[in-house]
């Protein structure tokens, strides 16, 4: 047996910024070297960021990725870090002849081993996910090579992300070929309760491979996706050895006592157990174990509770969307209701209250308590605020064009949207849209009104969870939050009956069932894809099923025009759920 110190770089790359990502790789590698690591492991497609989507179909982008890999390998050696082997993800190409149905250029979701200024070996993801938010058959071709490199006497294999999630392939081959350690770069996006599933999966695959497994996962926000980190190390029995924190960058260092190998180097084909053949490439970096040393105590960071996970995910998503897209500040409409109150708190925690601007836009139907609740939130959070009454502006519209009923109600929302977008144009603020998933599902929003904006932090948050998140934030804080206020959301915003306040004495329940009932039905219809008969069989009221299905189906055109927002449920409106707008299919009970 031999000790190896592994450093897992749980990092936050920027899609398309190869220079910044290379600089980050050098910094984290230096930190790993300073902490005595024998191997540094980075995340999936770290050099390019993930996911890069159609960028991989550009020859120029793939060329830049390969060039960045070569340059950073040389740079590590030039800066005295060449003796520390580094495994890092990037985009490569397979060199296949073009054919119909194959992604242009035959790109690879690849990983490479860098050592002493050169690229020692390369591999690529074998299993390509094509479900949920993933479209990897569109972008990549399959890898068919599994590197196993000997490091200080220990054979180390490399697999990439999805290769853990599917049966057969690299994990099965590692089990046949034998290795002392399997390292896996990942970009596995967050959704609720995924950390429990992930740990069980990693443990099971370690047992199947017959060796310890090191799982390094990306962290950060990228458009609709949030990556939570939660990097893991398990031993060959699947027992947890070390675990990184959630929603933050860190270098997790762990010492593992691993078996020494004397297998011969070379190329060896193996049946992958999935109808394919994988070639194992054995190379030797160093055959002699390191001298005995005192191992570090492994760290197992505590988990956040389920509601805390979601809140941290939303904060990180807003922080990275603002920072990575170059915005200096955000603006939103503040009504005194729970949705805008929670959105303001998330924004303040993400970027600091001094960079958050809110506009209170009372109309003739706004209640006194709404403006009072909004003003109390401004006082608690210390954000920037202004009041712009909209009654005279609405009157000006109505003098020129006669509107009544729903059209008149929507006009108020559209005036508010116009004011926010005007202030955004004038001052460069990013407009945050404050609608929740329940409203978005049922079309309970005004197109070009309250749906206007650039990013929608609670787009994937059902209304009942909005209340839970508000209560959680009033009871918790975190050093990563940039707002120091205690109980930043007024209690009245949480407890009062929700209303759009677009007509006298309006309540959400005038148009929708109670949210506790609605959200259970929406979960079954939207996330579980139950049909009408299945929904009724599951205990939902038949009349309500027919009514809500109709609302959801008719609102598809609105959802297509809604801003992006972070995914936190198993099926969000966006990358996960894609239905035709022009669509005459209607669910009817059998």
Automatic annotation (TrEMBL):
Annotated metabolic or biological route of this protein: Cofactor biosynthesis; NAD(+) biosynthesis; NAD(+) from deamido-NAD(+) (L-Gln route): step 1/1
Annotated spans, Disordered: 482-513, 562-590
Official protein name in the record: Glutamine-dependent NAD(+) synthetase
Keywords: ATP-binding, Ligase, NAD, Nucleotide-binding
GO molecular function: NAD+ synthase (glutamine-hydrolyzing) activity
Biased composition, class Basic and acidic residues, residue ranges: 498-510, 573-590
Coiled-coil parts of chain: none
Record-listed L-glutamine binding positions: 131, 188, 194
């Amino acid at each position: 047996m031999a000790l190896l110190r592994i450093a897992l770089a749980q990092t936050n790359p920027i899609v398309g910024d190869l220079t910044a990502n290379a600089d980050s790789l050098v910094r984290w590698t230096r930190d790993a070297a300073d902490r005595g690591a024998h191997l540094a492991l980075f995340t999936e497609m770290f050099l390019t960021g993930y996911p890069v989507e159609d960028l991989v179909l550009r020859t120029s982008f793939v060329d830049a990725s390969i060039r960045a890999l070569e340059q950073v390998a040389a740079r590590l050696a030039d800066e005295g870090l060449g003796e520390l082997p580094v495994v890092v993800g990037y985009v490569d190409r397979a060199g296949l002849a073009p054919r119909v149905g194959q992604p242009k250029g035959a790109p690879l979701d690849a990983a490479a081993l860098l050592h002493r200024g050169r690229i020692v070996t390369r591999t690529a993801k074998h299993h390509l996910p094509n479900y949920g938010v993933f479209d990897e058959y569109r972008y990549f071709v399959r890898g068919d090579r599994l590197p196993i490199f000997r490091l200080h006497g220990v054979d180390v294999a490399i697999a990439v992300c999805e290769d853990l999630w599917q049966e057969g392939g690299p994990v099965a081959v590692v089990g046949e070929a034998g290795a002392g350690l399997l390292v896996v770069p990942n970009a596995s996006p967050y959704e609720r309760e995924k950390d429990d599933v992930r740990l069980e999966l990693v443990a099971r695959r370690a047992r199947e491979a017959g060796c310890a497994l090191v799982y390094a996962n990306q962290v950060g926000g990228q458009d609709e996706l949030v990556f939570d980190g939660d990097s893991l190390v398990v031993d060959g029995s699947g027992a947890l050895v070390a675990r990184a924190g959630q929603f933050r960058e860190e270098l997790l260092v762990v010492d593992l006592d691993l078996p020494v190998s004397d297998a011969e180097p070379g190329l060896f084909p193996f049946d992958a157990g999935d109808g394919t053949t994988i070639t194992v490439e054995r190379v030797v970096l160093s055959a002699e174990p390191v001298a005995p040393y005192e191992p570090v105590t492994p760290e197992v960071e505590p988990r956040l509770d389920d509601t805390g996970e979601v809140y941290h995910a939303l904060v990180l998503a807003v922080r990275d969307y603002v920072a990575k897209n170059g915005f200096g500040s955000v603006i939103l409409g503040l009504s005194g209701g729970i949705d805008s109150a929670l959105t303001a708190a998330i924004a303040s925690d993400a970027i600091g209250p001094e960079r958050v601007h809110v506009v209170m836009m009372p109309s003739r139907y706004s209640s006194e308590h709404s403006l009072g609740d909004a003003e109390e939130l401004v006082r608690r959070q210390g954000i920037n605020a202004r009041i712009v009454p909209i009654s005279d502006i609405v009157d000006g519209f109505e003098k020129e064009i006669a509107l009544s009923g729903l059209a008149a109600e929507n006009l108020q929302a559209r005036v508010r949207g116009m004011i926010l977008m005007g202030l955004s144009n004038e001052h460069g603020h990013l407009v945050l849209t404050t609608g929740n998933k329940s409203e978005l599902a049922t079309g309970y929003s005004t197109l070009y009104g309250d749906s206007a904006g650039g990013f929608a932090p609670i787009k994937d948050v059902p209304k009942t969870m909005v209340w839970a998140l508000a209560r959680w934030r009033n009871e918790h804080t975190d050093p990563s939050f940039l707002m120091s206020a205690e109980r930043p959301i007024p209690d009245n915003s949480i407890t009062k009956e929700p209303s759009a306040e677009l007509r006298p004495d309006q309540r959400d329940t005038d148009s929708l069932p109670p949210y506790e009932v609605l959200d259970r039905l929406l979960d079954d219809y939207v996330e579980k894809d139950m049909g009408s008969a299945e929904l009724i069989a599951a205990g939902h009221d038949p009349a309500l099923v027919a009514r809500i299905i109709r609302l959801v189906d008719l609102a598809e055109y609105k959802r297509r025009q809604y801003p992006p927002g972070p995914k936190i449920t198993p099926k969000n409106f966006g990358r996960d759920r894609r239905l035709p707008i022009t669509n005459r299919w209607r669910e009817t009970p059998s």
